[in-house]
Amino acid sequence: MLAFRLLLASILLASCLPCYEFATTLQDEEVQYLKDIAKTLGKKDWNFNVDPCSGEEGWATPNAAKGFENAVTCNCTVSNDTVCHVVSIVLKAQNLQGRLPKDLVKFPFLQEIDLSRNFLNGTIPPEWGSMQLVNISLLGNRLTGPIPKELGNISTLTSISVEFNQLSGALPPQLGNLPAIERMLISSNNFTGEIPETFAKLTTLKDFRISDNQFTGKIPSFIQNWTNLEKLAMQASGLMGPIPLGIGDLEKLTDLRISDLNGTDATFPPLSSMKKMKILILRSCNLIGKLPDYLGNMTKLKTLDLSFNKLSGEIPESYFNIRDVDYLYLTRNLLTGLIPSWILEKGENVDLSYNNFKAGSQGTTTCQQRSVNLFASTSSSNTSGTVSCLRSFVCPKSWYSLHINCGGREVDVAGNATYEDDTDGAGASRFYQSRTNWAFSTTGHFLDDDRPTDSYIWTNSSKLSMNDSRLYMNARLSPISLTYYGFCMISGNYTVNLHFAEIMFSNDNTYNSLGRRIFDIYLQGKLVQKDFNMEDEAGGVGKAVIKKFPVTVTNSTLEIRLHWAGKGTTGIPFRGVYGPLISAISVNPNFIPPAEDGGSSSGISMGAVVGIVAGSVFAIFLIVLLLWWKGCLRQKSQLERDLKGLDLQTSSFSLRQIKAATNNFDVANKIGEGGFGPVYKGTLADGAVIAVKQLSAKSKQGNREFVNEIGMISALQHPHLVKLFGCCIEGNQLLLIYEYMENNSLARALFGPLECQLKLDWPTRRKICIGIARGLAYLHEESRLKIVHRDIKATNVLLDKHLNPKISDFGLAKLDEEDNTHISTRVAGTYGYMAPEYAMHGHLTDKADANTLKQEVKLLDLIDPRVAYHCNAEEAMLMIDVALLCTNPTAAARPSMSKVVSMLEGKALVADILTESMEALKSIGRTLGKTNWNFSVDPCSSGDESWANFAESNSYYVNNVTCVCSSITCHVVRIALKGQNLSGTLPPQLTRLPYLQDIDLTRNYLSGSIPPQWGSMQQLVQISLLGNRLTGLIPEELANMSSLTSLVLEHNSFSGNLPAALGNLPKIERLFLNSNNFTGELPETFARLTTLKIFRIGDNNFTGKIPAFIFQNWTNLKEIRTVASGLSGPIPDIGSSGNLEFLMITDLNGVESTFPRLSNLSKLEYLILRSCNLIGELPTSLENMPKLETLDLSFNKLSGEIKISLPDVKQLFLTGNMFTGAVPQWILNTNRKIDLSYNNFTSTGGVDDCQKSGLNLFASTSRINNSGVVSCLGSLNCPVKPLHSFYINCGGKEEIINNIIYEADPDKVGTSTFYRGTTHWAFSSSDIFLDDHTEEDVLVLENKQLSSSIGQLYSNARLSPSSLTYYAFCLHNATYNVSLHFAEIQFTDGKNYSSLGRRIFDVYIQGKRELKDFNIKDEAGGAGKPILKNFTAKVSDGTLEIRLQWTGKGTTVIPMRGVYGPLISAISVFDPVYKPRSESRGGISAVAKVVIVATAAFTTFLLVVGILWWSGCLRRSSTLERDLKGIELQTGSFTLRQIKDATNNFDAANKIGEGGFGPVYKGILADGKEIAVKQLSARSKQGNREFVTEIGMISALQHPHLVKLYGCCIEGNQLMLIYEYLENNSLARALFGPEEFQLTLDWPTRRKICIGIARGLAYLHEESRLKIVHRDIKATNVLLDKNLDPKISDFGLAKLDEEGNTHISTRIAGTYGYMAPEYAMHGRLTDKADVYSFGIVALEIVSGTCNTKHNRVKKESFYLLDVAHTLKQEGNLLNLIDPRVASNCNAEEAMAMIDVALLCTNPTAAARPSMSMVVSVLEGRASVSDILMDSSIYASKLDAKRLYGRVEGNDAENNNQAKSMLRDGQWTSSFDLYLAGSISSYWQDNNSTSTN
Q1: Which CATH architecture has domain 1278-1470?
Q2: pLDDT of 371-418, one tens digit each?
Q3: Residue 1851 known to be catalytic
Q4: Any idea which fold 1517-1621 has?
Q5: Rounded CA gap, 1166 and 1334, in Å?
Q6: What are phi and psi of 1382, to 5 degrees?
Q7: Which of 265, 838, 975, 1003 could hold 979 in an S-S bridge, CB 3.0 to 4.6 Å?
């Protein structure tokens, strides 16, 4: 190409001389074309102000850096010197990020395109095939797809280079027609298939490179035709040997590189005629025999590499003639004899390592002689097992570890070890021995790198952020092979840790990031990792990955080898970048190392123990003294304690800096005074002007809170927020440093002293107003932290020098958590600016800030006379309108600040949608369970994320309410809520949206049925309810939707017959009914659905035959799927469906039938007729389908020979039929995905393997070999003793479980694949996953999140789309136990759509179906839970077959499309009769050493404890110990260590709650039992004995509705309670917790929960031996188990109720809103206090809202009990029922529960019923009237006096308690006695109303 470029340049130089003389320029059209291709390429720096042919800057870059080129070359002599034309475009190494422009075809004279080393993507345009190009170079980009066959039309093309891309597919045969091609460079892509035969015609080729691809077949013999070839590179091409004999005819070859061939052994090829050879590489080519003499005649040879073959014999004497060769590599062969003296004396860069030369040869006593590597070059080894050249090395000791910093200096890693120095420069043939017990050997030099010397160490030039980054700053490289060798090591099992980080590529959008480094890893000679790519494994460049491998050292030596097998790029970022790279090595023992004192077994001497202990004590003393001196142990000031641990996200300034900046807070620098202190102007040393706010820290109150909020707000960045530079915290000083605002505040500018006022014209005022609104919108909606400022006013708006507003003074700001409707807070702000609801009730929302915005506009005095004459009246009126909206007295009516911005900027109108639609949406949201719609903004606004998602990365998530707006109002036309796990029901209220056209509720958790009311919405066009829990029938009313075009009901639980009325839908085009429980026949009325285009009815229970009208009447049909629909065959004739593109019919019931008639299907792309009972031969009509891409006829009974040809079909599956004859050549020669397994072919065309490229031939013939297994397995090499067991970790790596090795099965094979395991098993997988929108199917699944809970054996699994067969051979004939391990790891177990998937398949063993319709999740009891299915199988011919078969049942789109088919985690098979001979193992006792170490540790512990006690740290615990002394808890006892292990040391990830007494953690004990651990604080001495005594008492209680206390842990000052773990958390979270945690509790479940709580309380009060008052009954303290049964918990406040007491006088404790009035006000406690609390909880269960947070009406906030009484007085008690269950609950039961709740909350304790009576009423065994007539519940007047009488001496205390508790509400406000008459009359009224 250099010659071409020089010739082209010389011609153009001569031709362009007239251009400058006559000022000839480029054609205007071509200038425009250049602009067009610049856009396509992403080329932005071409200067179109000058002529592109001028050679000026932008069109040519003189003296450019090496590799970079920017040139557009023109020819101006084409058209009589009147115009110029572009002939060459060269843009190299410019990181262009566009695509290849097809518009290049518009340049008629273009000859050269060079876009090497950029970042271009896309495909090569086929249009280029019409050009007259000479050179195409696209090296080093991101190009994909195949090479267009059209390029074969470029008759002038001499060079094409597409190396280092991602091109794929087969090479087009048309390239063989290129008549002038000289260079074809296609290395490092993903090309497949064989080299086309047409390439034999490429006799002009001089340079051909195809390395690093996935070609198949043998090296073609026709390369002997390429007699002009000078360079040939086939390294890791995928081709097989042997090297063809005709290669010897290529006499012009100077560079031959062939390596890493597949195939069998072969002798050396005849190369004697190649006298011009300079580089000869035949590495890893399976060569055997002796070295040929004729190589000694290649006197021009510079590099000879024959390494990694099996060459034997001596080195020929003729090789003396090539003694001047630069590089000679004979590594790892079988060479013998003496090493020639010329090599040892004069050889340069010779590597003879790993051969069998004769020991005692001259020089073989050393491992390195000059630059000759002799390591392991002889066959003998010394007595220690090391190679002979190390024989003189005497081990000074035995090592049990190894740590090397490869390529770097010595590094100490904290807590680990010292990594030794490894900085030797190495070389092409280098052995290096360290000073300790390791060495390395490296082989090879970097080819084509144009560097004077190779570098074998690479140093990273950028910052690395991983742990122990010093280990990764340097790395050792090797071009071919790098071996680390450890010796003098103790025999045993070790773990080898190999540290890698890719530091030669980049991590950006440049060509430097496109490199791929791939190599293999060997340990002890065994391949442990093939095709290792550290960048992929680590997840990016500059990221560390540590590969861990187990290894056994048996002869004191360890060998680690990294080997480059020809794969990966070699020219990115520059040529010569490839081969192994390693950062560090650490080898650690898997055993307790022995003493390192030369073999002494005496252990540590007592003197050493004493010295260690004494040293430890002294060190501890020094540490304690240092901490005291540093002040860590002294009493801190209050401010320092407040600020301790606070991580402010700002800079830190010293007090000295601030004093210098403000001239020691000079009064002259004082610029203001705020509520928190003065503000000073200051100038820092660098000239920066700042504002310093000096805060008073004299008061302790508020320091921590205030600084916490400042730390939070400091992270905010916005142009309209004042920037906080940092803070200064020294002593009791707290200073805040802000940016300085030149124009002070808006208040001073508008209405400050006259001399300080600024002239603000109208545009400036409008800009200021919009800026403030933008700042507030950021705080409320856009920032990660949602902030309410609380004090927006003109004083707190500052103006910079450009009069841009900046909001300041966040001292009162509050964090607004998203799930809070308001923040209850101490009222703070400025009078006149606070919102009414905040000033009067303390309820704070972001609407308080919206209110204050108006106040600023109001102060302009409507309109300021100073601007009245010059303002824009329309803009002013708009601002006033917005201000009035912002000051609406109702907070909900105020707009959001983003809406304000839109209105002020004129982007939105000051209008709302219709009130009716708004109310309808509110009702719809409640029914759906959609809680995050923000009704404070217009639903039709385009800026609120609650109504529309904008940048959602999850394609399955959609949140859109779409409107169509007129000039007056808007209407909702579409509601799309996809993937949101809504748990409500389908809302009938949708009918209130008259313009609604589209309902999409795909992938939620909705239940219930389709409302028949929807049938009235004739305007509906689309309904999609895919992936929910919907049940019931399809309402026939839906047939009234005359506009409906799409009805999607897939993947639900609908049932019943399809309504015949649906056949009346006149416009229906899509009808999706898959995966439901529909029954009956398809209605005959469906014949009228002639508009149908897509019809899916798979996975149902239909009956009858496939109706003929489907293919006769539905002439517009494009797709039909009846997969396991339940229908019977035969398939009707399909001749009339000419528009069909996708036809899928599978798993038909019925009898056998011949192939259906398939005429007139020219548009068909997918034809799938699997398991349809088809017989006969393949019809020739299949050849008349030109667009057919996928043909699946598997699992039928088709027979005969394959006489048809389908060469264009991409995927062909004929598995499990009875085909005979020979496999056609068009199948054998293709590289497409084809599965012929399990057939009766007689010949496979000479292909003896079970897999040929993409062709699966396993069991495809009727022949078997002499072992009884299928013939394609060839020679099995079965062991002498047959196998009695095998274990496979399907889809995972090797695992050892209970001393059983489960073999690795990690290969991520693709479509139609056979894979043979490492031992005596294999598997075959068939078919593809449909609709998953991925290029390659993923057949190995990993769920890392489950690995810790269910074990590594189940966290991986193998998948298959259709059929997965495991096949074992070489087994002993016997009866085996077969265990199949399953765990569903693709679905979840939560309350979300991901839990709704159903995976169903069949299991066959030895051809017999053992399981039908097997569902892993159902069998295991949930997702992520293992299940083991056990079978017995008889093996009679040494083979065992296990097949998993998908028969079309189950869901296919949950949680995403393409999730279905068999899944298996592991297989274990063993002969139960066979008893292997056990082996005894000895051990060495280490008791003495353990005793010494334990004694030393115990002594140290005593000394440390003594010091801590002496310092007073442990003295307080003595009171706790006395309190706990003698307590005999009736529970189990746990150690602190057990609890730490169970909770992973109280990991925050295991924290499941926080109570008043401390956090609660989930834990798993060693036996697998799940527990809840409550960690209690024992700092206070008061109450320990009483509390633990009561816990011990309550632990004896046993009841189904009380949480079970397993035991406790009492160690030191730790007190922990261990309970049973409840899966569904608390009732509070289930009812009104965060939306993602709420559960769908239907009415029966709620009633069950209420009754359960009542039963539990009845047991405590009346049935147990100990009478207990709980004192804190609330929804938070009611937990739900997996069956949603309630359990009362948290007995921390419970009190013993002795029967003789009328009440318990006690310190008041409980929760506001749940305490009974007599207890809250007087401290009188009886069991009726629990009854009152139960009544509140019952109301919460009915209403679904929290008592203390009830805000059903936004403008007010009530307690739920107040609401109930209000509704009672209005006669509307049924309105209290939760809308989520209102439509489906039993009204009579609900009213009974409300009646009981109101009775339980009677203000008079004596009037409340007992809990046993409550249980009777709730269960229907008694009525409310029975309670009212029961005189036993009313105490006498004396009892009442006792209840409310005051005990002498306690008045003051009780008064104080009453006052303290009354702050939360008056308990005696409006409670009326609940009379029977009112109940019955209300009930009668409502009954009469409901029946009318």
Answers
A1: Sandwich (2.60)
A2: 999 998 987 543 345 677 876 778 888 898 999 999 999 998 866 689
A3: no
A4: Phosphorylase Kinase; domain 1 (3.30.200)
A5: 17
A6: -130, 150
A7: 1003
